[in-house]
Amino acid sequence: MNRDSAPSSRPSRRRERWTALAASLLLATGGLAVTGPSPADAAADPVAVTVNANAGLATVPATALGVNHAIWDSQLGTAETSDLLKAAGVRMMRYPGGSYADIYHWRDHTAPGGYVAPNTDFDTFMAAARRVGAQPMIIANYGTGSPAEAADWVRYANATKGYGAKWWTVGNENYGNGHYGSAWEADDHPDKSASQYARLVVDYADAMKAVDPTIKVGAVLTMPGNWPDGITAGSDPGPWNRTVLSLAGPKIDFVDVHWYPGGTAAESLARTAHIDEAAHLLRDQLTRYAGPNAARIGISFTELNVGTGQNTQPGALFLADAYSDLLENGVFTVQWWNVHNGIGTVSQVGGQTDYGDFGLLSSGGCTADNSVCEPPLNTPFAPYHGLSMMNLFARPGDQFVRAATDEPLVTAHAVRRADGDLAVLLVNKDPDNAHPVTIDYAGFTPSAAAPTTYSLTNGASGVVTGQSGSAASATLPAYSLTTLVLRPSSPVTAHPAPPGQPTASGVTDRSATISWSPAPPKGAPIAKYEVYRQNGTVSEQLGETAGTSFTVDNLVPGTRYTLNVLTRDTAGKVSWSSSPVTFTTAGPAESTCTVRLTTASDWGNGWVGNVEIVNNGANPVDGWTLTWSWPTGWQQVSSGWSATWTQTGRTVTVASTDDNRRIAAGGSTTAGFVGAYSGPNVPPTGFVLNGTPCTVG
Description:
Layout: H1 19-24, E1 41-42, E2 47-59, E3 65-68, H2 79-87, E4 92-95, H3 122-132, E5 135-140, H4 147-160, E6 167-170, H5 194-211, E7 216-220, H6 240-248, E8 254-259, H7 265-270, H8 275-289, E9 298-304, H9 313-328, E10 333-336, E11 347-349, E12 352-354, H10 382-393, E13 399-405, E14 410-416, E15 422-428, E16 433-442, E17 452-456, E18 464-467, E19 473-476, E20 480-486, E21 503-505, E22 512-515, E23 526-535, E24 538-545, E25 549-552, E26 560-569, E27 574-577, E28 581-584, E29 593-602, E30 606-615, E31 621-622, E32 625-629, E33 635-641, E34 644-648, E35 651-655, E36 662-663, E37 668-677, E38 688-689, E39 692-693, E40 695-696
Parallel strand pairs: 1-16, 2-16, 3-4, 3-10, 4-5, 5-6, 6-7, 7-8, 8-9, 9-10, 29-40
Antiparallel strand pairs: 2-13, 11-12, 13-14, 14-15, 15-20, 16-19, 17-18, 17-20, 21-22, 22-25, 23-24, 23-26, 26-27, 26-28, 29-30, 30-37, 31-36, 32-35, 32-38, 33-37, 34-35, 38-39
């Protein structure tokens, strides 16, 4: 079984290396000199950056910054490697290494068919995790193992050794076992279906929790919008995610997702725009299919890397941008693939030598013909510095807040800190041009002092720290990461505490009731709570109350809303934002029309859809036009039948033909189309027939 090359139906990536890599990790070889960044012309028009400190997102968890370790990496347990990871802020480490997990047997530390380096056993890994100060995430062998083997591992780890290992995943990329036509993951089970995986996840969870009921057990899901998302195979009741959650949802504590966006450096960097919708779909799938109390199920992203520029600046930019976006959406850990990986295809990316190495740290190896060698062993690559920047930017306990720009090549993220500081991360994805930016703040007034700045430029050997400039403007070098840390203009100690996590209930087409736990007493008495909607980086106040619930009215049917609640005290001071609550209003409760959109087939980047239009009125419809809007810009109708189909921007227009223009009272008609998508395929939530909003069937 070849784990060194990817099947053609998924993004190509250099993954787990074998004996040659493992041997190279035992060596420390000289490397090539790294040249400085080439000069870049500054773009003429400033980029407008907006930061809204009142529009709160998720809080940074203690396990946020993670990496992968692998049993074929002879440096796994060394003090030098561990100290480098600690310095970069790593707080979660995964073991025993991707697809190797499904051939690894922990008792005798073997991986039949693969290479196991010396000094990489479980106890060595745990010693390294403790030196780093990181929590372990352990992959139980699904492909060639058993629930009993996994339970014995839990017993050894937590009962015998007292490690307190909390996080355990059942298998790696088990959808890659051939069930969908591509096979790279070991799976000895005769039944390779998603249904069988889910049934066995239940057995694993029962066996493992019988040993230690305090552990958390996770199941493998696919990334929405990435193969094999959307595909139903064999006798499964639906695609992988739906099947696994429907059967195993009540037994699991988290889900485990991988993402390799693939493509050129520019394409990988642009695809971070998919993350918000992918996270939304994952949450929606959990709610729909995972059973009662699905909100308790966490989301982890345990493998992540770019398609091009794995150890140069695109990797660093992608890491910081993707980690931030995922953590904003409440993911509890993001883990880079991986610590050491080995030299691959050598190229020039952004004016720098890229070794095609998926590792954070150099393996010190050379190409087969010795024509090119990496820098000395454990030399940090650019993504390592990107991880270090994340450690400086978003610390455990910080709260992400909304930040955005008006330039696709420049992205922004921000966190609010307990001491009142605000940190802003700016990512310039333009390889050729510096970009001046102007920064506008809502809910935060910076002091006049120069901000503390952290900068990582193309080709740099590390993050540079300084204190200069102003909170209102900066110039971002080409292909760079910049973090500004700003002090508030006045102390924050007298401000009230935020309310607890809001929840939404009684959601209809026009209203929803938002509830929260009261803010703890602090300073002046609480006067009221204010409810705000996030419109991008603009907060729109929807109402206020002295109580701990509020019914929001006059909402738009079929619309997604994200709301926050703030505390205001009798002195007029306002708290931090609560965490957000997101919900989608239903279609109209009653209408003269109903629309049902169903999927006939799906192949991972395209699908066949059917639209049924039902006339609920007392009179026939004579000629009709149906419209809807896709939630994203990467969804489109490629062709259609039984109607005239057009798409302008995100808006789809479906017009009747002479054959079906008349829909009798109580009757219906159906039209079909072929759709395409290059990111998460988010269904539309509202349909309008001849100007009338329809109920959604």
